[in-house]
Design brief:
The complex is a heterodimer of chains A (95) and B (746). Chain A is α+β, with helices and mostly antiparallel strands. Chain A is built from three helices and six strands. Chain A has one domain: SH3 type barrels (Roll), CATH 2.30.30. A six-stranded antiparallel beta sheet of chain A has the order 1-6-2-3-4-5. Chain B has 31 helices and ten strands. Helix content of chain B is 62%, strand content 6%. In chain B, the strands form two sheets. In chain B, strands 2-3-4-1-5-6-8 form a seven-stranded mixed beta sheet, with helices on both faces. A two-stranded antiparallel ribbon of chain B has the order 7-9. In chain B, helix 19 packs antiparallel against helix 21 and helix 25 crosses helix 26. The chains are: A alpha+beta (95), B alpha/beta (746).
Chain lengths: 95, 746
């Protein structure tokens, strides 16, 4: 992908599609608000216990060198989660 | 409502908190490093307790670190059961200290809100207050205490500040016995169902259980509390729980997503009123370190470099100490023979070969275990362990494990014992057991002498490059096999619901020297005492099997040879020989005596119970092409695989038991079958030699590993399974290797 194409891609996501996206789709540095959690009961419960509850703000800090897991900042601490689980966290771009 | 305490009525205080909060440091400070370690029966959780130094008669009970009381496994249920007095082996604590990281209060206090509902007096201890201050957080402690409704005591663990205040608060809590009040309100409909469930349970085999447990049964869908109630109470209880959840769902209350948002909602104003966090937090040095250590390129380079250094230093640092210990043990054996006056019989052999040889052979690994524990404890305490798991998770998920399995597996290349101990950081029980089961497949340092023996002695005519290649292949065979084994285990025996892999990346911090050294010492002691007793027992059994029966004819024959040799010297003296001529005769006589002793040793071994067993099992190993001598060596090396080198030495009638000895090399290369259809044929063709390599790369001939597995998994079932599957792999692998090699070489 060229630099121009990747920027265009970035612009599109920054515009914020109305459809909710998941935490796994965010780029490094992006801030978002958790809308809801979807998925198996145990996953939803564990994610929420670690502080990913609706209304909370998350920031994507980095991805691991192999592309997964992702590190996010939530409620003032650093949490690592796999993209697979991050897809259960639906978010909207933070104001 | 709680079970009667089983032990003497002592007062006890439970310590509860998230992982990485300095809970263990606080435990050590309160008890003065005097922990009593045991296991909760039936689970893999360690039970640590110790006397509270400042309050005589009060015991501190360190509960396993957890983020929440929502238990998904019997292991996680231990904390809930202890707090509610539901474990017959542990009296219910009289008060609880909740340890909370001051720099990360909101998430830490989540657990506190659950503990407040257990019906016990609670004191909150704030750790890491220095970290919070460095980040610009200001905490209004009285306001926080008011919001939580319980005393809050800030601590600086490194300096021991705040400890007297904490002890005073605990003493007061114990005196007043006022239970903490709940600060999270659940919907009224939910509380009605909690009450209704009491009636349903009371009339079932489950009986009456505390309201806090009933809440857990309803809230944790498929969780440990629900499963236990269902298993005990049968379909009626399961139906009652299902019906209660269905009634709530009809009112718009989904239990699965109910609890966490309510708790965080209640905590918001409490934390908000007490803690001021800067809008634009300064980038801490921890953040800056992380930018490098988890960087796509530098992070990987640093990680690879660090792991290489750790790995090499295990060998470089531990080797001198291991050599020294080995020397001490053989010196001790020699001293017993020379000085203790045990008469040279069975007793002396039992002490020298059985006890000193067997236990010494295992204790030699202690330096390696200590060096490795030191590295792992430092990496863990400074916070790097979580980063290693973050970096490696993608790789290990490939075989169904998580990043947390990486360090235990790497450690197992030195020795599976510390590797298996290091699996304690894996919260998921199935991942942890899978890691414990494959860890012994890694080529530990005890396998190296076996590889060296085979490569140097059993591969005639191979070039140096070919030998190196064979050695490397043997070394990496285990990890290649481990991938499909772990994959299969996670899909068969250890299949089950996969909880998400969520891991906190704690801020970096400087490890406390005292705490690190204490834990290294504890691991060393656990190895020596727990593994040591079992090793002693097996060593003695194996010794007895190689000693009995003692055919006196062999001794007679040896005595005759010695007498003949002595007579030759006497005859030479009588003939008036002196100087060089006499010295030559004496040297010849000494050599003859040594040869007679070696020959006797070999015959004793041959005719011992183990030797006979070797002949019995010979047919089992016949497809591989091993004769009874190799069979005996395989049986004798059950306590520790490197023993095979020495046993082969004895059986091939050799003095030197060193793996590099030229004598053993030539002896082994020319060894032929001494009976049976292949009599006269060479035993060690290339197939049989490579098969020996494969067998010892894959087998679990190591009592220390079995003992540690038993301790860490809490039962003999898993070590027995590991031994069975690895022996099957080793045997199958050896046959396959022999057949394929013979097919290729012809």
């Amino acid at each position: 992908m060229t630099a121009a194409a990747s920027r265009a891609d970035g612009d599109r996501s920054a515009a914020g599609a109305p459809a909710p996206r998941s935490l796994a789709d965010l780029a490094v540095g992006a801030r978002a608000t958790v809308l809801k959690l979807e998925g198996a009961g145990v996953t939803v419960q564990r994610l929420a216990e670690m502080g990913l509850t609706p209304g909370v703000t998350v920031t994507v800090v980095r991805f691991a060198p192999l592309g997964d897991p992702v590190e996010v900042k939530v409620r003032g601490y650093a949490l690592s989660l796999r993209k697979l689980d991050a897809r259960c966290v639906l978010v909207s771009p933070a104001p | 409502m709680s079970a009667a305490p089983a032990a003497a009525p002592t007062t006890s205080v439970a310590l509860v908190g998230n992982p990485n909060t300095g809970k263990t440091t606080l435990f050590n400070a309160l008890t003065g490093h005097r922990a009593k370690v045991a296991n909760y029966p039936g689970v893999t959780v360690e039970k640590r307790s110790g006397p509270l130094r400042a309050l005589p008669g009060v015991e501190v009970l360190d509960l396993p670190g957890t983020y929440s009381l929502a238990a998904r496994s019997p292991d996680e249920l231990v904390a809930v059961d202890v707090l509610l007095g539901r474990r017959p082996d542990t009296p219910r604590p009289d008060a609880v200290i909740v340890v909370a990281d001051a720099s990360n209060l909101e998430r830490n206090l989540y657990l506190a809100t659950q503990v407040l509902e257990a019906g016990l007096p609670v004191v909150v201890a704030l750790t890491m207050t220095d970290v919070a201050r460095a980040r610009g957080h200001t905490i209004d402690v009285p306001t926080l205490a008011k919001g939580l409704g319980v005393p809050v005591v800030p601590l600086v663990a490194h300096q021991g500040e705040g400890l007297p205040a904490l002890v005073a608060a605990v003493a007061q809590a114990l005196a007043s016995r006022t239970p903490a009040r709940r600060i999270v309100a659940f919907p009224a409909a939910f509380e009605q169902e909690v009450e209704a469930l009491d009636d349903a349970l009371a009339t079932s085999p489950v009986g009456r259980v505390p309201a806090a447990e009933r809440r857990r049964i309803l809230l944790d869908v498929g969780g440990a509390a629900e499963l236990r109630a269902g298993a005990l109470g049968g379909p009626a209880v399961a139906a009652a729980v299902g019906a209660a959840r269905a009634r709530l769902a009809a009112e718009g209350i989904e239990v699965a997503g109910l609890e966490a948002p309510l708790r965080y909602l209640a905590l918001g104003p409490v934390v908000g009123a007490a803690v001021v966090v800067p809008d634009d937090p300064p980038a801490t040095w921890s953040d800056r370190i992380d930018a490098v250590l988890t960087h796509r390129v530098f992070g990987t380079v640093v990680f690879a470099g660090l792991m290489t250094v750790v790995f090499l230093s295990i060998f470089a640092w531990a080797a001198p100490a291991m050599d020294w210990l080995e020397g001490r043990f053989s010196a001790l054996g020699a001293w017993v023979v020379a000085e203790a006056g045990l008469g040279g019989g069975a007793l002396e052999s039992l002490v020298v070969d059985g006890v000193i040889g067997g236990v010494g052979g295992i204790l030699v690994f202690l330096p390696q275990i200590l060096v490795l524990s030191l590295f792992l404890t430092i990496l863990e305490d400074c916070g790097y362990m979580a980063r290693a798991a973050f970096l490696m998770d993608r790789l290990l998920r490939w075989c169904g494990l998580s990043g947390k399995s990486f360090i235990p597996m790497l450690s197992s290349f030195a020795c599976a014992v510390p590797g298996i101990m290091a699996t304690r950081t894996i919260e998921n029980r199935r991942d942890r057991i899978a890691t414990i089961l494959v860890a012994p497949l890694m080529s530990c340092s005890a396998r190296l002498p076996v590889y060296a023996l085979v490569v140097s002695a059993f591969l005639p005519g191979a070039s140096l490059g070919q030998r190196a290649l064979v050695f490397a292949a043997a070394y990496f065979l285990g990890i290649v096999v481990a991938v499909p084994v772990a994959f299969l285990l996670k899909r068969t025996l250890l299949r089950g619901e996969a909880p998400p892999f969520l891991m906190e990346l704690p801020p970096y911090k400087r490890p406390l020297v005292r705490s690190v050294l204490h834990r290294v010492f504890e691991q060393g002691r656990a190895f020596v005492t727990r593994a040591g007793t079992l090793i002693l027992a097996t060593s003695v059994v194996i010794w007895a099997l190689t000693w009995f029966p003692r055919d006196p004819a062999i001794a007679v024959e040896q005595d005759r040879a010695v007498a003949t040799a002595d007579a030759t010297v006497e005859a030479a003296r009588a003939a008036g020989r002196t100087g060089e001529a006499l010295a030559g005769v004496e040297a010849g006589a000494e050599a003859a005596k040594a040869a007679a002793e070696r020959h006797a040793k070999g015959r004793y071994m041959r005719e011992s119970l183990l030797g006979q067993a070797g002949r019995v099992v010979e047919p089992v190993f016949a497809p591989i092409g091993w004769d009874w001598k190799v069979s005996v060596a395989v049986l004798a090396s059950f306590p520790a695989r490197e023993v095979v080198v020495g046993v082969l030495g004895v059986l091939y009638d050799l003095d030197g038991e060193d793996e590099s000895s030229d004598a053993l090399r030539s002896q082994v290369q020319t060894a032929t079958w001494d009976h049976g259809p292949r009599e006269g044929q060479k035993v060690f063709d290339l197939g049989a030699a490579l098969a020996l390599l494969v067998f010892f790369a894959l087998c679990l001939q190591c009592v220390s590993t079995l003992a540690v597995m038993r301790k860490e998994t809490g039962s003999w079932g898993w070590p027995a399974f590991a031994f069975a599957y690895m022996t099957a792999l080793a045997y199958g692998g050896a046959i396959l290797t022999a057949i394929v090699t013979r097919a290729i070489v012809g």
